[in-house]
Amino acid sequence: MEALEPIQQTLSEIDKRIPDALRAALGLRKRRASILLPGDAYVTSFVASFQQPSSQRRDAAADESPVDNDGAAEPRAPLRMDWASCYARHHDEDAHFGHEDAGVVGVADGVGGYRKNGVDAGAFSRGLMTSAFEQVLTAEPGTPVCPYTLLERAYEETVASAATGRSTAVILSLAGTALKWAYIGDSAFAVFRDGALLHRSQRQQKRFNCPLQLNGRGSGDSITQADVGEIAVRHGDVLVVGTDGLFDNVFDADLERLVRMGTALGFSPKNMADVVAGVAYEISMSGSTDSPYSSDSRKLRGDRRRGGKQDDITVLVAFLI
Ligand SMILES: [Mn+2]
Question: Residue ranges of region Disordered (predicted)?
């Protein structure tokens, strides 16, 4: 099996690349020159590792609605995902994968409740994503990928492997100009167009901080409860996929601002994933910056919580080009 080659970097390196204007806009503290962030050396990233032949890249790049002699626009080339990721570990129970040529990405989050039993709470999320990735790798090239079918097969295979734990998961695939999804729980995604939020998945949870989750015994919440759907996407749209370590720490409006500013500054998917993860990490460690997690806690539990939520943070950014 081909493997994604991880890139190792530190959060301090990422921190330096968060523009000051963005820092100010999001109300983050001023950068300290010699800051050594806790968790440094624990950031792993991937960039799309399945490079297309340069001729195909040129075809895709030339997708500017060519006009024929009659003045009619020719059909656009299918979109593809130029993706990259950043994973800041806390307990190391998140997992993800992506395949550029197949246009498929996935993110999963092992539910930490199992940890106290001395069980590897990341085994099920890693099993899900490894299985899904292997299925994409071994599929006939050009075969359309149905995210629900892929998630269902990955789930069955992971249960059969006797992996421990529970996990939320989201898988998305491109089919022409449709972006399809299947997800269970609060692993989530957002699609941005022209710097504005176009679509955001709705978390599935039973109560505060208790998302729907698949488990290793094949019992509990059912795969058939997965939310499935699709939206029409187009050239230039930006997809952000992540675990709750992202979405419980960064408000949608701030993520929108990050994407808008990153796009204006010409960020690559890699740089955008790093900066979004860096911001999420900074909020996660804060005891005062407000977050969706604290806001929900105040609303749903009636407490006075402030600050972020420390968790594994997975951010995957795909430019649809
Ligand atoms: Mn999490």
Answer: 53-75, 285-306
Q: Is residue 66 part of a domain?
A: no
Residue 292 lies in a domain: yes
In a 13 Å sphere around the CA of 95, the CA atoms on its Cβ side amount to 22
What domain count does the chain have?
1
Question: How many angstroms is it from 102 CA to the middle of ligand 1?
Answer: 27
CA 279/CA 86 separation, integer angstroms: 12
Q: What digits encode the pLDDT tens for the residues 149-198? A: 999 999 999 999 998 899 999 999 999 999 999 999 999 999 999 999 99
The dihedral through the CA atoms of 71, 72, 78, 84 has a sign that is positive
Q: Does the pLDDT value for residue 49 go beyond 90?
A: no
Sort 23 into a burial class: Cβ within 10 Å, 0-12 / 13-18 / 19+: middle
Residue ranges with CB less than 5 Å from ion ligand 1: 109, 243-245, 311
How far apart are the CA of 140 and the centre of ligand 1, in A? 33
CA–centroid distance, 312 to ligand 1, in Å, is 6
Whole-number Å distance, alpha carbon 108 to ligand 1 midpoint, is: 9
Residue 94 CA to ligand 1 center (angstroms) comes to 7
Q: What is the CATH classification number for the domain harbouring 143?
A: 3.60.40.10
Residue positions counted in the chain: 321
- Gap between the Cα atoms of 117 and 129, Å rounded: 23
> Does residue 58 lie in a domain region?
no
Residue 200 CB contacts under 8 Å (≥ 6 apart), including other chains = 188, 189, 190, 191, 252
pLDDT of 191-243, one tens digit each?
999 999 999 999 999 999 999 999 988 788 999 999 999 999 999 999 999 99
Give residue 252's domain range. Answer: 7-51+77-199+211-320
